[in-house]
Amino acid sequence: MTNPEKKHILYKESIKREVTALKEKILSFLDDERYEDLQALIDNATKEELAKVLETLDEDHLAKLFDCLDKELAADVFVLLKQETQKMLLEHFSDIEMQEVTEEILDEKPEELLESMPLDVVQEVLLKADPEQRNDKIVEILNFLEYKKFVQLKPLLSELKPMDIAEIFAEIDEEKLPLIFRLLPKELAAETFVEMNSTQQELLIRSFSDHELKLILEDLFVDDTVDLIEEMPANVVKRILMQADSETRKSINEILKYPKDSAGSIMTTECISLRQDMTVQQCFEKIRAQAIDKETIYTCYVTDNQKKLLGIVTVKDLLLHSYNERVEDFMQDNFVYADTLTDKEDVANTLSKYDLLSIPVVDQENLLVGIVTVDDALDVITEEATEDISFINAVTPSDKPYLETGVFRIYLHRIPWLLILMISATFTGLILNTYEAMLSTLLVACVPMIMGTGGNAGSQASVTVIRGMALDEIRPRDILSVIWKEIRVSLLVSVSVGFVCFAKLQLIDRFIFGYPYTLLYSAAVGVAIMFGVIVAKIVGCCIPILAKTLKIDPAVFANPFITTFTDVLSLLIFCGVTLGLFGLGTV
Amino acid sequence: MTNPEKKHILYKESIKREVTALKEKILSFLDDERYEDLQALIDNATKEELAKVLETLDEDHLAKLFDCLDKELAADVFVLLKQETQKMLLEHFSDIEMQEVTEEILDEKPEELLESMPLDVVQEVLLKADPEQRNDKIVEILNFLEYKKFVQLKPLLSELKPMDIAEIFAEIDEEKLPLIFRLLPKELAAETFVEMNSTQQELLIRSFSDHELKLILEDLFVDDTVDLIEEMPANVVKRILMQADSETRKSINEILKYPKDSAGSIMTTECISLRQDMTVQQCFEKIRAQAIDKETIYTCYVTDNQKKLLGIVTVKDLLLHSYNERVEDFMQDNFVYADTLTDKEDVANTLSKYDLLSIPVVDQENLLVGIVTVDDALDVITEEATEDISFINAVTPSDKPYLETGVFRIYLHRIPWLLILMISATFTGLILNTYEAMLSTLLVACVPMIMGTGGNAGSQASVTVIRGMALDEIRPRDILSVIWKEIRVSLLVSVSVGFVCFAKLQLIDRFIFGYPYTLLYSAAVGVAIMFGVIVAKIVGCCIPILAKTLKIDPAVFANPFITTFTDVLSLLIFCGVTLGLFGLGTV
Q1: Quick one: B249 and B368 in the same domain?
Q2: Any idea what DSSP says for residue A259?
Q3: At residue A172, what are phi and psi to the nearest 5 degrees?
Q4: pLDDT of residue B348
Q5: Which residues span the membrane (chains A, B) (predicted)?
Q6: Shortest CA distance to B189 belongs to which of B212, B216, B167, B171?
Q7: How, if at all, do strands A273-274 and A368-373 pair?
Q8: Are residues B441 and B535 in the same domain?
């Protein structure tokens, strides 16, 4: 009779022996670089055996062996390892090297992940994963967890960038958000708050005590506070202004009075000003003292007692001069600046043109009132491109991401344009109603092609010119060179289009589908399309320039006007050429 | 008999007395702030008299009086003043205050300007003028001047930013360019060279001696040299590579091997690397030593001996720690980085998302190979927006400004799309040819409106989704929320469009123009347009997402496909609804 206890021990002994045997084989294969044999060995072993072997190896062999496993096996084995071994592996391999394995691990359910692995390893795994996948997983984990377990994830959140935390928070259940938000350390909380969408910001502010709100506001830069105020409803704004200190309140009111889209409205008032008689040493002392509170420190502004802007000094300039030199001896006094009322798009373009990190904003008396930084310029450039793309395609631009914009708002952004364009189609309807009796069926069937090609040819020209003007490459006074260029382009284009149109009618419509398009018919349509293209291109390039001259945004104005115009013109030309020039009436 | 000499003296005396009298009156009016009387006095005086008075005043009165003159008079008087007085005025008033006057002065012919005023005053005037006007004037002056006089303008050019000089050079006569370019000091010459267009760069390189080329190349950053090489013809590239030092040549070859549009292809290899055991003091010493040669110094990279990237330290971090602290104690080890093969658009978006000034680029072994700076990211974002706008509107994007692109190249960028779209209109032609016999004239006249509205509704949806995906706000897995949103929006939109269409046919076409659109006809067209809009919106939002899933640029793919699709669908729906549902045949 065998003792079951004994049997168990024997069984364990045998496993241990097997593992030891496996380990020795693996070690010898590894050292002799017999990778094919090693692979065969791995394929035959269970993941538990492999985990046991891995735990007994030194770091070098451990890494080598782990590297031989395919990603699925590696993930399975990794979860079984002891915490120290897991950490050793995470430290040994770089983020990129571990990425496939971490992805595989994260594909398992997050609860399992949390149960099977200690929290600091989970954190390491999450931090090594691809940001997109990582954020989704964290959302899942946070939504799954109870409050008391959130606290364990505090160190994980503290390791993330504010932009990523905001992305994660955007998908967290509403009632959990205020609790999780309070886990963030003070400064990170403020930075994250800035990146969140306005609905969530409002939710949080409503859940804050006055003291909590004050703490957040203290850590916000003035321009961010202004952005926040512009988004919030009146009662929230009142609370914000009450909690802001008087200095900040003054700056906020200052910025709020500038018109939307002006440099003043996007600037921040926090920047480092120096005096012209300061030495490099004194400058560095001042920068060190103020750096923590300023959005950017790399460009400093030299002003006099009245805050009149005298020059600019970069930290690079300071580093290139010795400690006892004076600022006035090397400051750049021929600098680029913006007016508070300069259009923000111009400011962004200037910043981009001169490769600056920030640009000073002065008031009418030439006194320094703030700066616009390159990250704001980037946002402006992206926004303006979105605006242009929207207007050109008949949508009023939205300042919120699509998925966060309400259905009714999207409706409002689209419906006016659709209606204007639909009603302006009255003209083409009238023309067709007038001439239709005279046009043969074959010619009427060509109308969509004629109008479509005219419209496309026109918008090709208008879009190129609109974009060129947005980038400051084309100015209104270039109108003659633009027209001359478009005339030459449209001649080339129209000849090709006319010829292909003729060929298409002969080959496709007549030969393949058997419609009786004679040579004369096809030639008439081809000639009509040629004239249509030339006229559309010239109209298309002129209208945006005229709009700009009249100080109307070319993108807004160009679209409905050019469409209506080219539609009507190409239809009229079509009727004129086929009926008048070629005499192709139905009669 | 009066001595003519005497008479002349008497005459001069009388002028002098008049001027003295004028001066006294002016002074008393100024001091008593009797501005109306002063204005009357000014209006009666000649510009010569005013100039004489101004020259005798102290700075305070001078400025006050000058400020009272309107801009035309001020300009006329200014030109008559002695050089010291001119300089005093230029120094007293800020650029903005002088702008109207300098504009007025510059509106006179440049040659007169050069003759009537000494060169250093001309320079001051030009530098105070609005950059746009200033650059044009400088072009005029340079084109007008003979070579030996260029030299006098050397100090003026040295005061301008490289981007402005490049703009000026773009309009200088070709044969004068190499001469004028040689006037620039060495470093400015290199910076200007980078900003010039490739035609002019080639012209210059061909005019350079090997030594001159070497000097310019020495001052270029590696990424700029790479851009240059990519633009130049083979024989020029050969010369450039021969003159570059071996270190640069190695870096160039390194960058050139990365695919177009990858992070590797836009990075620069010049950045400051630190070791983790360095103290703040040692870091600053290294930065000071290397700053002059590096494109950016504000973010430094901590690497080990193998160049493996361990962390990031900003100059701001360094300034916030004391001199004897070690880098490893405060470096950011959880940093954002890009792979050499990461798409440059993703790199730019990441840089923008995290508000970075530069982002490190690592190779497959996680070794630091370069950085991408924010100014390059700005260019990428602008370029990508232009690309999207172009593709959406059926133009192949150009990497050169419109005015610098040749006619034939513009033709090539436009013709394929026009032809594809024209030939795809075959489908609508077939549908019309099939159903036209059955459709009444009144219904055929509505076809452009039906197709136009369907097309516009579809492109509104597709453009919003395309832009949302470019900005990373919409991801392919959001497809269901996008469709659900578009369904709701399209229901709202279609009801409005259908109703307005019905009303328009009744009010405009029937009531005003007298076409016999009965209630039934109008209702049929209204219902058809409703269905058309709904289908177009859903197709419009799905196609870009499908394109992205298939790894095709949504902007390229979306346009021709969606246009053809919505045209055909709305036409079919129209025929189906009017003929099938409402039974409105011609018979």
Answers
A1: no
A2: P
A3: -80, 145
A4: 92
A5: 415-435, 441-466, 519-547, 568-585
A6: B216
A7: unpaired
A8: yes
Question: In the listed set A230, A257, A284, which residue is the last one of a domain according to the structure?
Answer: A257
Same domain, A348 and A490: no
Determine the Cα–Cα distance for residues B302 and B283; give it in Å rounded to an integer.
10
The pLDDT value recorded for residue A1 is 45
Specify the residue for token string 């001439």: A435
Residues of chain B positioned with their CB less than 8 A from the CB of A485: 402-403, 407, 410
Facing residue for B447 by CB, picked from A448, A468, A504? A448
Tokens 């919505």 belong to residue? B566
User: Which of A203, A227, A257 is the last residue before a domain boundary?
Assistant: A257
Confirm whether A53 is domain-assigned. no
Q: What count of residues does chain B have?
A: 587
Neighbours of A50 (CB within 10 A): 24
Residue B207 is part of a domain; what is its CATH number? 1.25.60.10
State both tokens at B204: 């210059």
pLDDT tens-digit map of B77-132:
887 888 788 878 877 776 666 777 777 777 766 566 666 666 667 777 777 777 77
Asked whether residue A197 falls in the same domain as residue A313, the answer is no
Chain A residues with CB-CB distance to B493 below 8 A: 411, 414-415, 418
Chain A residues within an 8 Å CB radius of B364: 96
Is position A404 within any domain?
no
Judged by CB atoms closer than 8 Å, whether chains meet at B382 and A352 is answered as: yes
Residues A518 and A438 in one domain: yes
Residue range(s) defining the domain that contains residue A176: 130-257
Residue B17 lies in a domain: no
Per-residue pLDDT tens digits for A245-294: 888 888 888 888 888 888 988 888 888 999 989 999 999 999 988 887 77
Query: Going by C-beta distance under 8 Å and a sequence separation of 6 or more, which residues neighbour residue A50?
Result: A42, A69, A73, A77
Chain A CA closest to residue B526: A422
Smallest CA–CA distance, residue B410 to chain A, in Å, is: 7
Residue B439 in any domain: the answer is yes
Tokens 């490893």 locate to B328
Residues with Cβ < 8 Å from A99, sequence gap 6 or more? A128, A129, A130
A375 interaction partners in chain B (CB closer than 8 Å): 352, 355, 374
Residues A295 and A243 in one domain: no
- Pairing mode of beta strands B358-362, B338-339: parallel
**Cβ-based neighbours of A349, under 8 Å, separated by 6 or more:** A381, A471, A472
- Residue B435 and residue B529 in one domain: yes
Calpha distance B516→B505 (Å, rounded): 10
Statement to judge: residues B219 and B135 lie in one domain? yes
Could you tell me which of A394, A171, A483 has the C-alpha nearest to residue B478? A171
Cβ–Cβ of A422/B500 closer than 8 Å?
yes
Bridge partners (DSSP) of residue A361 are A338, A370
How many independent structural domains does chain A possess? 3
Is the pLDDT higher at B132 or at A453? A453
